[in-house]
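Handout, section B. The chain below has 199 residues.
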Amino acid sequence: MIQLQLDLRGFPFKDILKKYEPCGFFPLQGDFLQTATGRIQLQLGGATPGTEHDQVYIVGDAELDGAIEVSLVDDFALTEGDAFTILHATGAITGQFAGLADGALVGEFGDTGLRIQYSEHDISLVAVSPTVIPDLNSDNQIDRTDASLFVRGFGLTDGAAFADGAVTGDGAVIVSTLPMLFTLNTNSSAGKTAFSHLE
């Protein structure tokens, strides 16, 4: 199922709701504009776009804002490393969903979370463990450097980027994000480094 509440550039409609059951492929011919009041609701039930998970396919440019909501269907369980291309544009993608910077956590489903990734033509969701510190400096290693970046940004309440430690995409680096950043393993060197700085 795909539900969209959006503005389509060139159309005089303010709110458009379209549904596919259960999972679907939603093609749009022409540029796509989602405003701040827009909302896309997507379902994931497997790896295949259009049949097992929803995908919006835009022949044109995509300009993003507003909300995205994701749910799992058909008893589907995420596995760390699963990736889902939920939106593809043949033109350029600009903007981001509100509060969701690149790498931000879209939601948690049991022991696994979904992080959003933006590229020139695609938006993907990648399944990750939400209880470990993310790779804040994108060097493919999770280490003390990542913990140090979080500590350096700690206390920012607005405008912080993912690389500053704003892992939820809301621009804040605060104590409530710690459960998403660190495992409960007290032997974790990254966890020890960060917590020693916050005491």
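Note. The helical segments are 144-153, 178-181, 189-198. Compare this with the example in section A.
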